[in-house]
Structure formats: C-alpha cells, structure tokens
C-alpha cells in the first residue's frame, strides 16, 4: 500500500534524476565530449579527479559555494521576522505578501537591472549615500572581486525572501491559536511565547527550509549567469557554473561529470549531517 | 532495499546499453531516400532528388530566399532547413547544434560563427575533410578566398563570411572637435583622439571610446599583426610579448585618463557596445564589419548621426594601419553526412555567389566592394548617415592577416587570460604579475592538451 | 478574533515601515512597467527615468500581442503546461508525502533518503542524458515531456512531508479504526487538513514552471509549442534583445502569476487546521 503512494514519485526520481546521475558518474571516468557520439568514448580512470584537485578555478568555485551558503540562514531569519509581522502585526497583510513576493515572480532581467542601477559603482544611490557618509572609495560591488560575491548573495536573499516568507506563513498558520491564548493567560510575554511556542513548532518548517535552502543555494547557476558570468576574475564562479561552462562551452562532458560527482558528494555530506542532526532539535 | 537497488541498477545498465546503440547508428528521423552522387564531382546527368539538411542559426525567414535561389538554380536538390535559433543567436544556435548531433540527428551541412567554434568541432571529429573534393573541383583555395581555413593541412570547412575589424567613429563628434577622419594612425594617436572626444561629466559624460568585454579587446595590439596574432600560435606562446604589453598598457591609459568607459561600469551595468555607440555615450569603438549595416540605423537603434570608418590602428610609426585578423562564419559538412558531394556544392555556392545574394561581406576574393556598399546603402534605413568615402577607403585598404585557426581549447586560454586582465584593469594587479600569471596558466592549459 | 475599536498604533507604525521597505521590493516590477512604455533607446538611460519621457506603449504592446510572434498561443501554452505540471506535481508529491509519513512499510526511510538525495543533482547536469532519453522516447518537443519533467519534484514531496508529519497520528488511527482505508483517509482527511501547505506549494510550482526558460528551451523545438518565456526571446534579433518589447511581454505574463498567488493565498488562510495538530 505504501508503495502505491510513493511509487509514482520514486519512478519519476529514478528516471529523471537517478539515471542522469549514474550517467554522470560513469562519464566522470572518461574524457568524452557528448557531441562525438557514444562510439567515441575513451576512459581515463581517475585523471579527471586528479585534474580537479589542481584546478584553481574549480577550487575557487567550491570555496565560493561554501561562502554563499551563509545567505540561507540570513535569508531565513529575515523571512521569519517578516512572516511574523505580516501574519499578525500589520494591516493589509494580503497586500504585503504580494509585495514581498514580487522579486520572486518578476523577470530576472528586471531584478538584475534594478540591482545594477541601485548599486552603480559611480552614480548609484547606494554608493552616493556611502560617499555622503564620508566613505571615500565605496566598493564597486559587482565590478569588485571582493564585493561581487556578497552582492550576488544579497540579491539572492532579496529574490528568495518571498518563498521562505510564504512557507513560514503557512507554518505559522499551522500553530493553533489556543496555544498562544493559554500562554497569555498564564502571563507569558511575547518573547517567551515566541521562544517556547512559535520556534519549536516551526522547527519542521525551519528544517525543510534549511535543507532545501542549502541544496538550492549550492546548485545556484541561473542568477550568476545573468548577473556576472562568474566574474570578475572568477570571484563569483560556482561549481554548477564551472560545470556548465566545461560541458557546454568547452564541450568536455567527462570533466564536467567529475564536477557533478564532487558536487553531489559534498551535498550528500552536508545533508547527512543535517538529517541525522534533526532529532536533536526538530519537533514533529 | 538492496533488492530494489539491484533491480534499479539492472534497469540503468539496460537503458545505458540502449543509448549506446542509439548514439552511433540509429536513425531518429526518417531520412528521405537520397542518392548521393559522390565521387564524380561534376556529374553531367542530374541524379534523383537529393535532400540536404542544412543547419544555421539564422531565422528561417532570412534563409528562405537563399534556399529558394539555390533550389531554382540547382535542379534535383531539395534543402531541408534546420533553424538552430529563432532570434539569430549564434551561441544558443551552437548549443542546439551540439545537442542535435549528440542525439543522432542527421545533418549534412552546418555553419559555425567563428574560428574557435570551427576548430573545436573539427578537433572532435565532427566535420568531414574537404581536401578530396577541392582537388576534384580543381580550385586553388588561396586564390579563391581571403582566408585559408586549413588545420594542419586538412580543410574542414570553407570560409563563409568575412569578419574583419576596424574603428567606427561618430563623425558629428569629430567635426565638433575639429578632427579629421583618420586614414593611418597608431594606438597612441587613437588614445589622443579619445582624449579630445571625451566631454562632459557625471552621468552625462561622453567617453572618447568604449571597450567591450570580449577577449579580443585585451589583445588589441596583437590582433593587428600579420603573425603571432593570438595567445598561442604555431606552437608558441605569445603572452610575454611587446604586443600584449602594449595592449594592456593602452587599456590602462584609457581607463586611468577617464577617456574610456570605466571597466567597472561596463561589467556591473552589463553595457553593450551598440547602445553605448548609438546612444552617443562613446565616440569611437573598435568593432567588426557586421556593424557596417547597422551604421545605417536599425529599428532598435535608429541612426542619429553620421558614422565614419577608420582602419585598425598600428602599433607604432612606420607600421601599416588597416591590418587585422579576420574571422567569420565557416561552412562545413558533417562527417556522418551521406550526401557529401551535394553538400560541398552547396557550401561552395553559399560562400561565394550566395553571399553576394545575401549582401554579406564574404571571404570571396571576387566580391565587388562597391556593389556591397551600394547594397548596404539601398537596404539601410538612413543611408545618408553612412560616410561612404571612409567606408570605401577602409574596405579597399584592408589587409587580412593569414588565418591562424586557434587550438581546440582556445576558449580555456581566453578565460585564463581574461581572469588576469580583469584584475589588472580594476587596479588589483600590476602589469608584470598579470603577464607572468597568464603565461603560467596558459602554458599549463597547452601542456594539458598535448 | 478580537475587534479593534480604535487603531492599534503599533500596528499602524509597523505597517508604514513595512510599506516603506516594500517599495524597494516593488522596484523591479515598476521598472518592468516603465520599460514597457518607453521607446527602446530610452530603456537604459541613466539615471533611470521611472516615469517615461517618451510614450510608446501602444506600439510596444501591440507589437507583442499582434505582431509577428504568436503571443496568444504562447500564453495558452504556458497556461497549459503550468497547470498540468502543477496538478501532476501536487498529486504525486502529496501521495508520496502521505506514504512516507502515515503508512508504515519496509524501507520507507531509506526510500525517502534516496528521493531526498536526488535533490542534490543540479538540473544542468541532467540536460544531456535527458535530452537523449527524450529523443529516444519520442518525448522531445512535446508538452507531455515538459509536464513530466516538472511533475516529479523532490521539493514538493519534502515540503508536504514536513507538513503531513506534523499532523497527529491519532487522527489517522481513529479513522482506520472506523474502517477507512488509506486512500479514503488520504482523500477526505489529509488533503483538506493540509490545504495551506498544498496551496503554498501549488503557488510555487505554478510560478516556477511559468517562469522556466531553460527546460522549454532545450526540450522544445516547434514554435507552435513554445511557452511564454521562449516566445519572449523572439523579441530579439541578431543585434540583441528589444527590452522594451520583452518587458511589455513580461508585464503581460505576470498577470496570471499575481492571480494564482492571490487565489492561492486565500486557500492558505482559509485552510487553517482546526485542532487536528497538537492537542
């Protein structure tokens, strides 16, 4: 009976995700290029992996990915605050949900343009403001090898805020109101209510957002492609971007597959840690 | 759980086996029955109908007249056009091509937008050798085309269009600054012009020149050389060279003097050369001959000033201007094609008469420059805004450097180089370090690919 | 709920502050609308002209809707694909979530971990093998193919699983004692209870499918089957994109998303579970 319910999902996952993964795994030991057809596969053992170890751009990409992960908890915290405010502490909550969700549904091009305008290194409002405050050489944001990655992270937080927001709101709605009622009668302050009712009961939602947030963030590609093309000087290059370039621009399917395998293993480790840690803090 | 995994793996390997068979021989699309007339180059008796599958990234509407013209003048040939991109995007088109070839699609002819793409695919064995058919036709390749497309002695494609480089100038701004259209100049004089053409401040500033983000803009003093005009040519690295040094220095001078659009602006605002030039935010740009048509205005960028043309500057007094590398589209036959002779006839036509028909700048030595220019003007939205005198001068005095087909890993070299030059232009690394690091990395890539 | 006889000042203040910050969140949309009303050469004028100085709205919007590209057809294709994908995904994911939380069977945890593990595979890594597979199966250049690609979402399964897990087991057990089978419990108890979660996920899935460019780009070829995101690409030529037209198309395309969002949120609010969670 259980299989009846989970069957379709399992089947889909095997065909659309597992099969490509195994495909990539096998190919990671080859130096194949997919345009040449299967009759020209040659295998080269662990060469791709050895090359990856020495690949500076790949190394930088891995580091960048880990740094970018910070955007997830920061974004979630902001979303939680907004969710609580919108849920019960403002008027016109419906309108606010739409407003804060707008960057998620607006065209990526529009979002990128607005961001570029706001953060224009010479004339943008942000830098003009900083210069008025007395900062002589404000960062050049997307054109700055130190600040490009933080800029991308800020943009990611901004765009994805809406998603965490509405998921948290759904989670908040799931907490029965009488719990808060009872706590108030017992004299608990708002903060105590938050700490002992809201946070614990939201842990399944938080756990979900954390895991999917980390995974989604680690797999980032589209935004980087539109915004920075991995630059300047590879300072915003991430694993999936490097892999895409290798696979589709340099047509080295084998080498790109090795990157996929490494990505998978890293994510597996991160998720395993989170998954087995859940019994310590997630309350169903 | 284990049993499940087992059956899953078996299923996978079956699938993999299926695909292995699929990739090499399966006919995914029913092929029309052709009778390839191979071997005999010019068969007198027309054979049964041959269907050629031709792939290009131009929208079907643009290719249609060409295809019509060819079919009318070559009885027995039917062309089945495979449109790789509906918006004329060559990069997306190449990606589509790769995917189609990977899944076994039957194609006969394909075009590629540049020497790098050509070299890459030739290196992967996708393209058929044309040596035999050229010998059979009896033509002298170098006498017919401005470019020699051979790679290590084998010709894998014909040069279809010619893309050379020169400078576009806003003539109105030149006149306002009291400057003549240059016919022979050096990079120093170029920067001098840029200085005189820079006006205004703040957001309304007009820069003397704009440099785009492509790799060639970091090699400006190298691409105007007849020899050694790329990072790696003829088995030699050309990184620690006077030409590269000059290229980077002129960029740095332009940036520091505030006469070239700041690189930080270019990348953070994703500026494009067309909008910068046509919206009058930059007075001069180094660009390629596809811009000739656009100088007459396009729907997107109506012309609002006269555009003049100047040859590519030289590196110093006494060296000739108007020399540049020439790139262009390449027309090739797929190695797996079953209609190679018919395909060859088509690409020979397309790269010569076909090009004239389309009024593009071909690599055909017999193309008539005057006819080309008048063709451009007749189709232009604002023909009077193209300065004919300077355009004619530039076209007639152009010297194409012999084509150096780049290695198959050219894009890797360019990426390594650009990563360093970006640090340089943003002031985070000095010249010598940039050159030293580039040399090391480029050498490593070359070594890895031997 | 309590009725306020007078304005709660703290609430009002918070509302004003949130609105001020909210303006920044609206800027991309404002830029989109503004760009769609301008002639192309002015779209990227700097400083940004939020209110257009020249007006070209009529030309832009009519070029989009009545011009060369079959915009109406693309719109319909997008609606079709997004609705079908959302429907399939909600069904498959909710079924799987129920199975993974409320039915005890051997290997349940292992299978869920397997499913979760596949979320770690970026879609870009699957493009080539899936492309080849689709051509093999004849799913290339079909809407069915697109729907299948989007209909088996790990994210959906995981999200709904979290929500289903927080529904008290006693609820299910008492229904079973009453003689109801799993299918009945799933349909008449679980789904209504999980309305906020399902509505939330449905909104997200619809929006993501609607805005997806890469998958239709790779897996569709005949223009008649193009979705909006692909169709918008048509407002470009060799010289680059016509942003004024693309933004006119994007503004037109955002309308269903807003509708879906607002409708969906209503379900989220109304679906407040009534006492079935934690006693």
Question: What tags apply to this protein structure?
Answer:
heterotrimer; A: 284 residues; mainly alpha; MetI-like fold; 13 helices; globular; B: 450 residues; D-Maltodextrin-Binding Protein, domain 2; 2 domains; four-stranded mixed β-sheet
Quick rundown:
The complex is a heterotrimer of chains A (284), B (450) and C (279). Chain A has 284 residues and is mostly helical. Helices cover 71% and strands 0% of the residues of chain A.
Task: Give structural notes.
Chain A is 71% helix and 0% strand. Chain A is mainly α and 284 residues long. Chain A has a domain at 69-237: MetI-like (MetI-like fold). Chain A is globular and about 75 Å long. In chain A, 51% of the residues are buried. In chain B, strand 4 (150-151) and strand 5 form a beta hairpin. Chain B folds into two domains: 48-162 and 328-367, Periplasmic binding protein-like II (D-Maltodextrin-Binding Protein, domain 2), CATH 3.40.190; 165-325 and 396-448, Periplasmic binding protein-like II (D-Maltodextrin-Binding Protein, domain 2, 3-Layer(aba) Sandwich). By secondary structure, chain B is an alpha/beta fold. In chain B, the strands form five sheets. Chain B has a five-stranded mixed β-sheet with strand order 2-1-3-14-6. A four-stranded mixed β-sheet of chain B has the order 8-11-7-12. In chain B, strands 4-5 form a two-stranded antiparallel sheet. Chain B is 43% helix and 13% strand. In chain B, helix 16 packs antiparallel against helix 17 (431-448). Chain B has 17 helices and 15 strands. In chain C, strands 1-2 form a two-stranded antiparallel sheet. Chain C starts with 8 loop residues before the first helix and ends in a 9-residue tail after the last helix. Chain C is mainly alpha-helical. Chain C is globular and about 70 Å long. Chain C has helices spanning 9-36, 57-66, 71-102, 108-118, 127-137, 143-151, 154-165, 169-177, 182-193, 195-210, 214-219, 228-232, 243-270; strands at residues 236-237, 240-241. Classes of the chains: A mainly alpha (284), B alpha/beta (450), C mainly alpha (279). Chains in contact: A-B, A-C, B-C. At the A-C interface, helix 1, helix 4, helix 5, helix 6 and helix 8 of A face helix 1, helix 3, helix 4, helix 5 and helix 6 of C.
């Amino acid at each position: 009976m259980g299989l009846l319910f989970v069957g379709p999902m399992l089947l889909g996952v095997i065909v659309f995700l597992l099969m490509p993964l195994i495909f990539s795994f096998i190919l990671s030991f080859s130096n194949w290029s997919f345009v040449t057809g299967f009759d020209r596969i040659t295998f080269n053992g662990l060469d791709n992996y050895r090359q990856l170890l020495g690949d500076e751009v790949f190394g930088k990409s891995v580091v960048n990915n880990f740094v970018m992960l910070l955007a997830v908890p920061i974004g979630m915290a902001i979303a939680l605050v907004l969710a609580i405010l919108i849920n019960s502490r403002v008027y016109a909550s419906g309108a606010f949900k739409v407003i804060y969700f707008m960057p998620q549904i607006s065209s990526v091009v529009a979002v990128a343009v607005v961001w570029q305008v706001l953060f224009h290194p010479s004339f943008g409002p942000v830098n003009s403001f900083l210069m008025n405050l007395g900062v002589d050489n404000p960062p050049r944001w997307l054109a700055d090898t130190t600040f490009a990655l933080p800029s991308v992270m800020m943009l990611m937080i901004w765009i994805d805020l809406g998603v965490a927001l509405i998921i948290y709101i759904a989670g908040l709605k799931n907490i029965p109101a009488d719990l808060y009622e009872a706590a108030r009668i017992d004299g608990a302050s708002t903060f105590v209510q938050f700490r002992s009712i809201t946070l614990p009961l939201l842990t399944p939602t938080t756990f979900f957002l954390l895991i999917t947030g980390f995974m989604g963030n680690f797999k980032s590609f589209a935004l980087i492609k539109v915004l920075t093309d991995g630059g300047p000087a590879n300072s915003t290059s991430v694993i999936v971007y490097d892999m895409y370039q290798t696979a589709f621009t340099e047509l080295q399917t084998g080498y790109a597959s090795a990157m996929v395998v490494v990505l998978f293993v890293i994510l597996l480790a991160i998720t395993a840690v989170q998954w087995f840690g859940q019994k310590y803090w997630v309350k169903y | 759980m284990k049993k499940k995994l087992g059956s899953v793996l078996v299923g996978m390997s079956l699938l993999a086996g299926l695909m292995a068979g699929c990739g090499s021989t399966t006919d995914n699309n029913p092929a029309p029955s052709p009778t390839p007339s191979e071997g005999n180059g010019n068969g007198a008796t027309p054979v049964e109908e041959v269907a050629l599958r031709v792939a290009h990234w131009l929208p079907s509407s643009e290719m249609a007249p060409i295809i019509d013209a060819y079919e009318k003048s070559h009885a027995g040939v039917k062309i089945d056009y495979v449109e790789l991109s509906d918006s004329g995007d060559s990069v997306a088109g190449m990606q589509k091509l790769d995917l189609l070839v990977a899944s076994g699609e039957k194609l006969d002819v394909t075009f590629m937008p540049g020497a790098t793409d050509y070299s890459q695919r030739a290196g992967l064995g996708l393209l058929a050798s044309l040596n035999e058919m050229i010998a059979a036709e009896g033509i002298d390749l170098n006498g017919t085309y401005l470019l020699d497309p051979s790679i290590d002695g084998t010709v894998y494609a014909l040069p279809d269009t010619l893309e050379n480089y020169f400078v576009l100038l806003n003539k109105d701004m030149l006149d306002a600054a009291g400057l003549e259209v240059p016919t022979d100049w050096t990079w120093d004089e170029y920067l001098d012009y840029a200085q005189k053409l820079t006006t205004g401040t703040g957001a309304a500033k007009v820069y003397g020149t704009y440099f785009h983000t492509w790799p060639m803009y970091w090699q400006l003093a190298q691409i105007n050389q007849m020899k050694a005009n790329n990072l790696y040519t003829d088995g030699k690295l050309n990184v620690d060279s006077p030409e590269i040094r000059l290229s980077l220095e002129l960029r740095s001078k332009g940036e520091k003097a505030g006469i070239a659009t700041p690189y930080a602006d270019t990348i953070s605002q994703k500026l494009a050369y067309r909008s910068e030039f046509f919206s009058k935010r930059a007075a001069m740009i180094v660009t390629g001959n596809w811009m000739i048509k656009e100088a007459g205005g396009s729907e997107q960028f109506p012309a609002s000033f006269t555009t003049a043309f100047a040859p590519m500057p030289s590196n110093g007094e006494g060296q000739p201007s108007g020399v540049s590398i020439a790139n262009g589209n390449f027309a090739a036959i797929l190695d797996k094609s079953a209609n190679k002779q018919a395909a060859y006839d088509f690409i020979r036509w397309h790269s010569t008469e076909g090009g004239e028909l389309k009024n593009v700048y071909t690599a055909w030595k017999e193309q008539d420059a005057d006819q080309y220019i008048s063709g451009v003007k007749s189709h232009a939205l604002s023909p009077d805004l193209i300065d004919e005198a300077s355009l004619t001068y530039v076209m007639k005095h152009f010297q194409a450097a012999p084509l150096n087909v780049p290695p198959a890993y050219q894009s890797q070299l360019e990426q390594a180089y650009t990563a360093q030059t970006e640090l340089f232009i943003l002031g985070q690394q000095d010249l010598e370090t940039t050159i030293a690091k580039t040399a090391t990395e480029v050498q490593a890539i070359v070594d890895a690919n031997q | 709920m309590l009725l306020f006889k007078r304005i709660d000042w703290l609430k009002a203040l918070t509302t004003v502050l949130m609105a001020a910050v909210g303006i920044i969140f609206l800027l991309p949309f404002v830029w989109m609308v503004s760009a769609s009303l301008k002639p192309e050469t002015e779209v990227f004028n700097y400083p940004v002209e939020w209110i257009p100085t020249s007006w070209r709205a009529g030309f832009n919007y009519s070029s989009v809707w009545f011009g060369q590209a079959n915009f109406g057809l693309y719109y319909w294709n997008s609606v079709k694909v997004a609705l079908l994908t959302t429907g399939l995904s909600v069904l498959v994911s909710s079924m799987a979530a129920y199975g993974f939380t409320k039915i005890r069977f051997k290997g349940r945890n292992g299978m869920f971990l397997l499913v979760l593990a596949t979320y770690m595979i970026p879609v870009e890594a699957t493009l080539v093998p899936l492309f080849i597979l689709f051509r093999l199966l004849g799913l290339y250049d079909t809407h069915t193919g697109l729907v299948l690609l989007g209909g088996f979402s790990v994210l959906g399964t995981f999200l709904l699983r979290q929500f289903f897990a927080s529904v008290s087991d006693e609820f299910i057990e008492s229904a079973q004692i009453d003689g109801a089978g799993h299918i009945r419990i799933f349909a008449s108890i679980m789904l209504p209870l999980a309305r906020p979660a399902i509505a939330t996920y449905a909104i997200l899935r619809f929006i993501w499918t609607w805005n997806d460019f890469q998958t239709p780009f790779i897996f569709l070829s005949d223009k008649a089957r193009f979705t909006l995101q692909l169709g918008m690409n048509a407002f470009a030529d060799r010289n680059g994109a016509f942003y004024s037209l693309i933004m006119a198309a994007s503004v037109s395309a955002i309308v269903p998303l807003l509708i879906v969002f607002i409708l969906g949120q209503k379900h989220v609010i109304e679906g407040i579970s009534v006492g079935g969670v934690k006693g």
